[in-house]
Amino acid sequence: MANIKSAIKRIEIAERNRLHNKAYKSSVRTLMKRYLTAVNAYSANPTPEAMQEAQQRMSAAFSKIDKAVKRGVLHSNSGARKKSRLARMLKAAEAVNSAAS
Description:
The chain has helices at about 5-45, 50-70, 75-100. It is mainly α. The longest helix is centred in the first third of the chain and has 40 residues, at about 5-45. The chain is elongated and about 70 Å long.
């Protein structure tokens, strides 16, 4: 444990920031998982309602990813990669359903 007052303060700030970043990353993962379940539901039953649900989930995930990047929790390239993967999954599900029709 640090003895110097400024070092103690830095440790406290680092812990506070770590918990804040952890909460952001956790919510990003949660929204991504909700989006994936919506895409899987759309793949299983391709209805306009399911598509709209998947798009709403994607929008929420994109928003949270962008906020995490803006706050410095995620690197910009990491955020872009996550968003690209999410968009690609929906596009693949659309392609499968349009080919099956």
